[in-house]
Amino acid sequence: MADNDDDFPEYDSGLAARLDAIDDEAAAQRARTLRAGLSDYDLEDEDFEVLDAATEDPDAIVYFPALPVLAIVGRPNVGKSALVNRIIGRREAVVEDTPGVTRDRVNYKAEWNDRKFTLVDTGGWEPDAKGINASVAAQAEVAIDLADAVLFVVDATVGATSTDEHVVRMLRSTKKPVILVANKVDDVRQEADAAVLWSLGLGEPWPVSALHGRGVADLLDKVLEILPEVSAVAKEEVGGPRRVAILGRPNVGKSSLLNKTAGEERVVVNDLAGTTRDPVDEQVEIAGKFWRFVDTAGIRRRVHLSQGADFYASLRTSAALEKAEVAVVMIDVTEPVSVQDLKIIDLVLESGRALVLAFNKWDLLDDERRRYLEREIEQDLSHVSWAPRVNISAKTGRHMEKLVPALELALQSWDTRIPTGKFNALVAELAAEHPHPVRSGKQPRILFGTQAASRPPTFVLFTTGFLDPQYRRFITRRLREIFGFEGSPINVNMRVREKRKR
After folding, report:
1. Are the beta carbons of 140 and 171 closer than 8 angstroms?
2. 182 to each of 61, 166, 207, 364, 473, how far by Cα in Å?
3. Which end of the chain is less congested by CB atoms within 10 angstroms, N or C?
4. Which of 201, 200, 133 minimizes the C-alpha distance to 166?
5. pTM of the prediction?
6. Apex CA 422: angle with CA 419 and CA 423, to 5°?
7. Confidence category of residue 236, pLDDT binned at 50, 70, 90
């Protein structure tokens, strides 16, 4: 089957009516029967946690706790990316002998001894030789802002450099726990190289070889001792004003938007890209409601710091998203939709936050550019066609009143919970309407489905075999058609389980 959704039927207008006609209690009873049927299958402890979260209460808001965050910092070419790959158990971070080749991805999910955590890789880029001390320290500073604990990696074969000492001074001033990792200790004879690093004053150096895996298990045991169970920096806050991250590439008008919503000059606005220094948390009142805005320019500019700009942008964007519930991604309509715009949207999708697209500088749009823009939206933004769109001018305040309904719609979708009975009724309808294709002589069946979490809506399907990505997209599309979910990403996960052997 081709990797597209053409093989699946388009919108079935009668599906919503058929679901509405199903009695809620009858649907709930049928779901309970399906749930009981899972006892014939080999389930894991995590499965029972998901099943226990199943509920018929559409107002129940359940979300997964924020995973603790571990940052890996250190100067270029000490083996940070190799260590990331070793910890996550797969080759995802780019590793080359050229310093600073890590590019876009900075966050990875990792697990050790049944505990999950987020790993922040700060490889990034090769800083200017002139400003290397300040650059690496600034980079570490950003990572530490986002982290619950830090691994500071030093090349034991080189020893402590002035750059390392520069970073140590900054690390000492933080309250975060730090583990000193002496990398490239490939055998016992090199352990003396690691011992020399006691001089840095960060306590015992942990000798490892990221390349060969030596000592990494012991290091991870130590990491679990200092990482909290639930992140303190990425913790979910409940109640209070809803939290909004204003995102976009430099000079797209983020600070103008914050100033206009606040009704005063709270943030320096300058035509020079990247003039906002740090995220600014502001509580503002729009249309009688309070919101907390996290304005982030994405870039903290330092002397001799140009190559790292994109890397900083993704780190800062990640930091803002950790704090936010909904992201407003601003797009400058006077310029073509760029790769950078798409990367920012991808970061939002990866973070699972609600999404609103704000097309800014609408007052400067002429007819010709409008035609091109519509084509760009159709081609480049089709994967987020479900996100509410507002056309605004942050500078003049035009159509700013449309922002609040868009934010409320996206957050309502993000909070939405579908009762288990209704969800299983939908899945049964879809399987009858369009069964999964036969694969290798077998046809995967969906045994039971439940919404494991909201914020974002996350559905888990227990199946007898692997569901094609296209089929999962088909289910996601139907979920949107029936239940809306405008402005919220939807996760559809599956758990393939085998029948228990008698």
Report:
1. yes
2. 44, 17, 5, 55, 45
3. C
4. 133
5. 0.71
6. 85
7. low
